[in-house]
Structure formats: structure tokens, C-alpha cells
Design a protein that fits this description.
Organism: Corythaixoides concolor (Grey go-away-bird)
Distance between the termini: 30 Å
Largest sheet: none
Oligomer: single chain
Main location: cytoplasm
GO biological process, one term: de novo centriole assembly involved in multi-ciliated epithelial cell differentiation
Radius of gyration: 38 Å
Structural class: mainly alpha
GO cellular component, one term: centriole
Subcellular location: Cytoplasm
Number of domains: 1
Order of helices and strands: HH
Number of strands: 0
Length: 169
């Protein structure tokens, strides 16, 4: 009987340890989710930066137009506007390639975030299922323990009656 209690206690401790491990994993995933959200916030800041970059591009285009007008009116100073135009073009190209790289990075990070959210949802679902199973098993174990205690009590009563009857005989 002691062995049965010990087995049940060990089983409950094992289940409790499993439950704690699941909770730790959930906490770790929540921390990762917070990091991902923080990174997503940084991405939003980058998108705002991109918007200012678009404005800068427009400004650069305006400057380019001004330089073209200047070049038409001052043909003898043609070399200087050409240099400025080339510089603006290089800046635009550099800016566009940086913008494309950031778009790709944002897309990759968004996909990664989506995958992690799916993983977290799956783990939370599994954790919930395990929690329900553990609760059901604990209820069953509690019920069995109560029955065992009742049987122990009945056994002691019968044993006491037998002892009493032996003494009477």
C-alpha cells in the first residue's frame, strides 16, 4: 500500500515537473515574442526612415531639375553641373539599393515573426491540452487516493473487529 502511495506521489511529481518545464518553455517563447515585437517596432522606424528617404529623393530630383536648367542657361560652366548630376545619381542609386535591401529584410523578418507566432500558438495549444490532461489525471488520482483511504479505513475496522472477535473466542 505504501508502494502504491509512493508510485502515485512519484507520478504526480513527474507530471508536476513536466508541467513546470512546459511553463518555462512558454515563458521563454513569450520573451522571444517580445524581442520580435521590439524588432518589428524597429522595422516601423525604418519604414518611417524610408518615407524621409523618399522625401530626400524628391528633393534630389528637384535639385537635379534645377541643375538641368542651370546647365542650359550656362553652357560655359557645363562641367560643374555634370559632376553634381553624377553625384546625385550615385546617391539615388545608393539610396534605392539600400531601400530594396531594407524592404527584403523587413519581408524576411515579417515572415520569421509570422512563423514564430504560429509556433507560439501551437505550443500554447499543446500546453493547454497538457494542462487539461494533468488536471483530469490529478482528479482521477485524487479519487483513487480517496477510495484507497476509505479501503484502508474499512480494513482497519475489519481488522479491529477480527481482533475483538478473537479475544471473545
Amino acid at each position: 500500500m505504501e508502494a502504491g502511495f509512493s508510485e502515485m506521489r512519484n507520478e504526480l511529481q513527474s507530471r508536476d515537473a513536466l508541467w513546470r518545464r512546459i511553463q518555462l518553455e512558454c515563458q521563454q517563447l513569450h520573451r522571444e515574442l517580445l524581442k520580435i515585437k521590439e524588432y518589428k517596432h524597429m522595422q516601423e522606424i525604418q519604414v518611417k526612415h524610408q518615407s524621409s528617404c523618399v522625401q530626400l529623393t524628391e528633393q534630389l530630383e528637384n535639385k537635379n531639375a534645377e541643375l538641368l536648367l542651370l546647365a542650359q542657361s550656362q553652357e560655359h560652366q557645363q562641367e560643374e553641373p555634370n559632376k553634381i548630376r553624377n553625384h546625385v545619381y550615385q546617391e539615388e542609386q545608393s539610396h534605392c539599393s539600400e531601400q530594396e535591401r531594407m524592404k527584403t529584410e523587413i519581408s524576411d523578418l515579417t515572415e520569421e515573426l509570422h512563423q514564430k507566432e504560429i509556433t507560439i500558438a501551437t505550443i500554447m495549444e499543446k500546453a493547454s491540452l497538457l494542462e487539461r490532461q494533468l488536471k483530469m489525471e490529478l482528479e482521477i488520482k485524487d479519487s483513487l487516493l480517496a477510495k484507497q483511504q476509505l479501503l484502508d479505513f474499512q480494513y482497519k475496522v475489519i481488522k479491529s473487529e477480527n481482533t475483538h472477535l478473537k479475544e471473545m473466542v
